[in-house]
């Protein structure tokens, strides 16, 4: 029975100057030395997988010009901001998980948005105390202070080796020369067209005479090119501490928002220690708070570790995975938030002992109703996003997830900037127990406070093994964590990147109490068997997510990549 006992799981807390923290740092470096031994064969090629073929090409262009993975990540992020405005942009936020090959150093660059200084807990409640959904997701009041521009500049200056003028050149060229409308652009803009028509600056660039442009039409964005050139010329301060930032704040306020120039001037990128998870002879490196992804993945995998999943039939494996998902999402809503504002019980939530207690409540032959889990009635007081994965010939790695929250964010554009503002304020808990746009419940840990970073599901992840290394992540709002989980499990089953990203998906997030599944996730017999166990299964008529991953085989140095075929615009290139 010893092989069924959970192995020790590590999850790093916030940095500390204590002796304990210094020993933890040395222990981490030792672990990484074991996970990535020096005798591994270096990658023979570089791989970039992103949501748009033009962004993937931008990354390879920079690598060919002598840039490292971090320079390439800057190029890909900026290019996606131009050609995929539905999913990310300079008006949004990002997490960049990075691995530096020469010394094994790993960190997460937190460029998440922050709440303006005039934000308050009840800012979206109407006279009856109910959440006004229109104010929470549409227009400038829905926008947090953007972090992506700061993150791009920080990544380039601290970890890249090329000047910003070089790394941002492909994006500036795309904005100025134009890019073709693809099916994703057309479909998601059709969904948000009526909101965008409220704001002339946005509709003038992204619509053609008030209509959604046809697939193949060209979009030119001179204003975006100008903003990117501002970053090249003046860096962080050009965006956040200048006449440009003052004009942005004035424009937002005149349109009904609450930004102040001081909010922009105060914005800072933060580096955070990743969550580290040991699972079946592999080490996972993933996103810490204000992402909920790392802790949720740790909790789910700790619960699952004693079970021989690979030997189980499909229904039993899905049942146990869903039960673990259910419990992790419950804890997500109650305990997680910005670690600079709330005390996140990270050590507890990621401990094997805590997982054992949760596991004890799981029945092998029966689903647990979510309302029966402790804390449901007595709790303590992002769908558009994009992801890219890349690895260079030196073994440097980046997993980056960026967002503006819903498709095309708030649909509001500050005139003259060329980018849309996010609607990430909806990722806060506007009212305890009230669901956000993705149906996620939240409580006081994620309540709105000035300067606070809203909780995210973005989960950029590395999986480090003796023979293979994976870099993966995905957009998908509340489903991000479960998509990354299924991708990780597929990698551990021995499959490659195209399998991870194409895998049919299912999801459970505690509330609503049902399994959501893509149409090809289960056959009819499996659905009936899950229902017999007490699960409600809702098969969706649409797909979700847009995962991109790369893999390095450390035995022979080969590199492979996969791009989600749910959207035709994505591209994975090994070169």
Explain what you see.
The protein has 575 residues and is α+β, with helices and mostly antiparallel strands. It is built from 19 helices and 18 strands. A seven-stranded antiparallel sheet has the order 6-3-2-10-9-1-18, covered by helices on one side. Strand 9 (384-391) and strand 10 form a beta hairpin. Helix 2 (53-64) packs antiparallel against helix 3, helix 13 (293-304) crosses helix 14 and helix 14 (314-335) packs across helix 19 (524-532). 55% of the residues are buried.
List the helices and strands and how they pair.
Layout: H1 19-35, E1 47-50, H2 53-64, H3 69-83, E2 93-99, E3 106-111, H4 133-137, H5 148-159, H6 164-167, H7 169-177, E4 179-180, H8 183-196, H9 200-206, E5 218-219, H10 222-240, H11 243-254, H12 261-265, E6 270-272, E7 275-279, E8 282-286, H13 293-304, H14 314-335, H15 346-349, H16 352-360, E9 384-391, E10 397-405, E11 461-464, E12 468-473, H17 480-492, H18 497-502, E13 506-507, E14 515-517, H19 524-532, E15 537-539, E16 548-553, E17 559-563, E18 571-574
Parallel strand pairs: 14-15
Antiparallel strand pairs: 1-9, 1-18, 2-3, 2-10, 3-6, 4-5, 7-8, 8-11, 9-10, 11-12, 12-16, 13-14, 16-17
Helix pairs in contact: 2-3, 3-5, 3-7, 5-10, 7-10, 13-14, 13-16, 13-17, 14-19
């Amino acid at each position: 029975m010893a092989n069924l006992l959970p192995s020790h799981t590590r999850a790093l807390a916030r940095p500390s100057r204590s002796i304990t923290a210094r020993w933890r740092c040395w222990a981490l470096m030792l672990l990484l030395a074991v996970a990535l031994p020096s005798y591994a064969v270096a990658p023979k090629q570089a791989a970039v997988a992103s949501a748009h073929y033009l962004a993937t090409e931008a990354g390879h262009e920079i690598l060919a010009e002598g840039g490292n993975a971090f320079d390439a990540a800057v190029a890909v992020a900026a290019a996606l901001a131009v050609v995929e405005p539905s999913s990310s942009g300079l008006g949004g936020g990002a997490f960049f998980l990075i691995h530096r090959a020469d010394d094994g150093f790993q960190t997460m660059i937190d460029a998440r948005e922050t709440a303006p200084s005039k934000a308050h807990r009840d800012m979206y409640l109407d006279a009856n105390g109910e959440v006004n959904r229109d104010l929470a997701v549409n227009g400038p009041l829905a926008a947090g202070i953007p972090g992506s521009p700061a993150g791009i500049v920080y990544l380039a200056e601290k970890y890249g080796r090329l000047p910003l003028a070089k790394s941002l050149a492909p994006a500036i060229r795309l904005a100025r020369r134009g890019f073709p409308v693809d099916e994703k652009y057309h479909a998601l803009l059709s969904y948000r067209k009526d909101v965008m028509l409220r704001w002339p600056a946005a509709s003038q660039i992204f619509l053609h005479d008030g209509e959604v442009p046809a697939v193949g039409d060209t979009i030119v964005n001179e204003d975006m090119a100008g903003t990117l050139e501002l970053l090249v010329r003046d860096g962080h301060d050009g965006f956040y501490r200048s006449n440009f930032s003052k004009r942005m704040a004035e424009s937002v306020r005149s349109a009904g928002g609450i930004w102040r120039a001081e909010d922009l001037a105060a914005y800072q990128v933060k580096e955070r220690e990743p969550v580290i998870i040991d699972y079946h002879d592999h080490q996972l490196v993933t996103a810490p708070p204000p992402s909920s992804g790392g802790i949720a993945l740790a909790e789910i995998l700790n619960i699952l570790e004693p079970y021989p999943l690979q030997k189980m039939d499909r229904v039993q494996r899905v049942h146990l995975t869903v039960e673990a998902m259910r419990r992790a999402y419950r804890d997500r809503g109650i305990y997680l938030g910005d670690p600079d504002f709330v005390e996140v019980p990270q050590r507890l939530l990621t401990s094997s002992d805590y997982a054992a207690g949760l596991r004890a409540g799981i029945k092998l032959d029966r689903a647990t109703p979510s309302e029966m889990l402790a804390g449901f009635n007595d709790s303590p007081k992002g769908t558009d996003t994009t992801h890219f994965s890349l690895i260079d010939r030196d073994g440097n790695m980046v997993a980056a997830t960026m967002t503006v929250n819903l498709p095309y964010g708030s649909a509001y554009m500050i005139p003259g900037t060329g980018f849309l503002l996010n609607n990430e304020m909806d990722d806060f808990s506007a009212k305890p127990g009230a669901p956000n746009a993705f149906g996620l419940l939240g409580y006081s840990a994620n309540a709105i406070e000035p300067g606070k970073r809203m909780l995210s599901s973005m989960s950029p992840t590395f999986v480090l093994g003796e023979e293979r290394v994976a870099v993966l992540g995905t957009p998908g709002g509340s489903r991000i964590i479960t998509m990354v989980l299924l991708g990780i499990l597929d990698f551990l089953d021995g499959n490659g990147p195209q399998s991870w990203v194409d895998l049919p998906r299912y999801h459970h997030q505690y509330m609503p109490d049902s399994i959501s599944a893509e149409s090809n996730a289960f056959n009819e017999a499996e659905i009936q068997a899950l229902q017999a166990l007490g699960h409600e299964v809702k098969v969706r008529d649409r797909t979700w997510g847009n995962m991109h991953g790369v893999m390095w085989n450390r035995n022979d140095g080969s590199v492979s990549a996969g791009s989600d075929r749910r959207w035709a615009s994505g591209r994975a290139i090994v070169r």
